[in-house]
Write a structure and sequence with these properties.
Immunoglobulin-like, eight-stranded parallel barrel, Jelly Rolls, 29 strands, 3 domains, alpha/beta, seven-stranded antiparallel β-sheet, TIM Barrel
Length: about 625
């Protein structure tokens, strides 16, 4: 069966929080409802909610936000989802409502003050699926002009599929939903016709080794160092066995996306005003490109650190009300945008804009929300002018922890900045970064799921940009496993990045997730990471393997068929290798091969000999 066993950390979490009782009650409810074919859940009882309040058995979404639960299918099939809802009209509009189930969505205008049923039918695979109802267009013009969405109940009907609601925030149910998503939406079918140099399909029976090289999903790390001389970690041709050599080998083996740690900070890019020093940033980007990786750039601005003294002096004066300093600082930000974004954005896939702008509101204090929006417009305009399609992201911490309000505060902050002036055409380029520095005392599957669902409201790509576990936490391998599983198994995410991986060159409070210790010994967290990504199977119980590695034979049409993770693949016939990318939504591929004679010719001739020998055994028995 797919990986669905609760990890040791989460079992402890359930015991500590008394959630085994909740899980047991949910199981009884599930079994009782399973035979009915249709299940009604009062909205006020849904286990995941953001804004709003209960009104009897109803739930009033009084601000933009969501209400969520899970649905389970014993068999693949057609399921009808029904949301019973009423709208409160204000500001010239009725509430807008979306229903999300896995990768599918239905939308309505709830244009009636009385409760009405809003239904959608989805075709779903078996397993557990996340179900989320969202309120999209809140408006509050006072007591007599408050637009709200009132949810009465959620229902599912699919007797043939064995559809039922699983209204539980237990780690087991959340984990099952993650596994279902990974199996059905991080993978897909591929039918590849292999042709020779003349355009003819290869003969049947040719052995083809199919191996995933890089996931389409971003599994990455921050790269340590402030400049090229800080540890010489990216020096060319390092001596075998040296720290730079081991560091580079580990980068290549474990990650498909890199981001600078401190090297992208203003302090290290322009210590002298007007003299950019981007050499180490460029080295990181060069290394990524040379090894088929993508780059996430961190970051244009940060209101807490990584600024040179001359910038800090302008900030201090501007905060004190000095208009000239405020204008001069804004000019300096534009100049930084020129070399940091305009000159290099075509080499970035993602760019963190103003880092931690909610918790560290320095630039909001100086320029206001409209000024922050203007800075984001400037970045995105620069990307457009350069012909780049990079995502420009917010980035913040605290969202996946135990305090639910952090996620809602962050969501509201982003919404406020957008509404303050990010242009409609630029909004399509935004992304959301989430940091998660955690440990046993603030880790929980329901925290992670809740935070991701809160941020899903925007329908922007969400990346876990910085991950670390408290130093010395004995459960660090389990916590790493849970976070990777739930982030990879979410319908709203596109990446998971460690904040470093080698213990001596990481932010020391969170080195529990280090993959290697100071002597380059693989840690227990490192073993979990390697098994998850199929780098090495350590035979760890309850740890899945997310890779595709198959030995196939061409069929009579010169084709190979398989189901694999989306990403970049190597196809090997003998010693000859070809590359192909398997992408979501595309199942048919064609490769024309021009290999060296010593490889393909050998296998073609070998196959012909094999077929002839087989024919002789069948036709000419002794």
């Amino acid at each position: 069966m797919p990986y669905g066993i609760v990890s040791r950390t989460l079992r402890r979490e359930l015991v500590r929080r008394g959630l085994f009782a909740v899980a047991a009650w949910s199981a009884l409810t599930f079994l009782a409802s399973h035979c009915q074919g249709q299940v009604d859940l009062n909205a006020a009882d849904a286990v995941f909610r953001s804004t709003g309040y209960a009104s009897g058995s109803d739930w009033v979404l009084s601000g933009n936000g969501y209400l969520g639960t899970f649905v389970h299918l014993d068999n693949p099939g057609t399921v009808q989802f029904t949301v019973n809802a009423a709208g409160e009209f204000a500001g010239g509009e009725w509430p807008l409502m979306d229903l999300h189930v896995a990768n599918q969505k239905a939308s309505w205008s709830v244009a009636d003050s009385g409760f009405m049923d809003y239904s959608a039918t989805f075709q779903l695979p078996s397993g557990t699926h996340n179900m989320r109802v969202e309120f999209l267009n809140d408006y509050n013009g006072g007591a007599q002009a408050d637009r709200n969405l009132v949810l009465g109940s959620l229902s599912v009907s699919g007797p043939a599929a064995g559809a039922s609601v699983r209204n539980s925030d237990s780690a087991a149910v959340i984990g099952d939903a993650a596994d279902t998503y990974i199996e059905n939406h991080r993978k897909g079918p591929a039918r590849i016709v292999l042709k020779d140099a003349g355009g003819s399909p290869l003969p049947p029976g040719i052995p083809v080794h199919v191996k995933l090289r890089n996931h389409a999903f971003h599994f990455g790390s921050a790269v340590a160092g402030t400049d090229r001389n800080d540890g010489h970690l990216l020096d060319d041709n390092p001596a075998p066995g040296s720290d730079p050599y081991n560091y580079q080998q580990a980068l290549r083996q474990h990650f498909n996306m890199l981001q600078p740690e401190k090297a992208g900070g203003w302090r290290w890019n322009e210590q002298t005003r007007g003299v950019p020093t981007m050499e180490y940033v460029d080295m990181i980007t060069d290394f990524a490109e040379q090894h088929g990786m993508e780059t996430r750039m961190n970051c244009l601005l940060y209101g807490d650190g990584l600024r040179p003294d001359w910038v800090r002096e302008l900030e201090t004066r501007a905060t004190g009300g000095d208009v000239a300093a405020r204008n001069d600082l804004r000019s300096a930000i534009s100049s930084r945008n020129d070399y940091f974004v305009s000159d290099r954005i075509t080499r970035y896939d993602h760019l963190n804009g103003i880092n931690e702008s909610y918790h560290k509101p320095l630039y909001t204090d100086i320029y206001g929300l409209a000024g922050v929006a203007d800075i984001y417009n400037e970045m995105i305009d620069a990307a457009d002018a350069a012909g780049a399609d990079a995502v420009v992201a917010f980035n913040e911490y605290g969202v996946l922890g135990r305090w639910a309000q952090y996620g809602e505060w962050y969501r509201q902050h982003i919404e406020d900045v957008i509404e303050a002036g990010i242009t409609p055409e630029n909004r399509r380029r935004l992304g959301i970064g989430i940091e998660n520095y955690t440990g046993s005392n603030k880790h929980g599957a329901h925290y992670i799921h809740r935070g991701l669902q809160t941020m899903a409201w925007f329908e922007y790509p969400i990346t876990l940009t910085e991950f670390g576990v408290n130093t010395g936490d004995a459960y660090a391998p389990d916590i790493l496993l849970d976070n990777m599983r739930l982030v990879f198994g979410s319908d709203v995410t596109d990446g998971f990045l460690l904040w470093g991986f080698w213990e001596p060159r990481m932010w020391q409070p969170v080195t529990g997730a280090a993959l290697y210790d100071s002597d380059w010994n693989l840690t227990e967290s490192g073993k979990v990471y390697q098994q998850l990504l199929g780098i090495h199977d350590w035979q760890l119980a309850d740890v899945p393997v997310w890779t595709t590695d198959l030995a196939l034979l061409t069929d009579e049409n010169g084709r190979i068929d398989f189901r694999g993770f989306y990403g970049d693949y190597d196809l090997l016939i003998g010693d000859t290798k070809w590359a192909v990318s398997i992408v979501e939504g595309v199942s048919d591929y064609e490769l024309t091969m021009v290999p060296e004679p010593s490889s393909l010719t050998f296998y073609v001739l070998g196959s012909i000999v094999l077929m002839f020998a087989t024919w002789r055994r069948v036709k000419c028995p002794r």
